[in-house]
Design goal:
mainly alpha, 10 helices, 0% strand, Tetracycline Repressor, domain 2, 181 residues
Length: 181
Amino acid sequence: MRAMLTDALVEAKRAFLRRQRVDMGVLAERLDISCDALHHWVGSREQLLVEVAWSLSEYALGELDRPPRAAGAERVVRLAVGFLEAVIGNPGMKYWLAHEGELAMRLLTRYDRGFQPRLIRVFLTVLREETDAGRLDLPADLAEVAYVIVRIIESYTYLNFITGREPDAAKAESVLRMLLR
């Protein structure tokens, strides 16, 4: 079962990165299984899209935060801005936003969908590591700061839907620097 789930995720990521709609029927056909079996393995299309987005995000975050890395507020800013650049520059994400932007925004920004809490945990972990090491001292609850960092990333990712302006990681960077000083 685990191998089947992995196969489904790999195929869905391939479609996503090729700028193709992640279609459950096509995916089932590629895996040579029934649609019912695919739904049993991965849940709904929405759940699969969240897992695809998280898998790609987790990889990008890991690459961005590999040693040697910055320390303190600079580490947090570089990770957030680097992640935002990766997201807005990803061809699959651009395609998804262009064709299903409302769905993408709903799946990735609502806590109950599972993507957002994982991203918040990543930033909370980094904030705690830097605070515990004495390289960061913030006069606020770290969980709240992690939430705000994620909301800034989300706001700039979906800027064109919110304001009609193109996403710009550099503008997010100045806001993040102000937040973390």
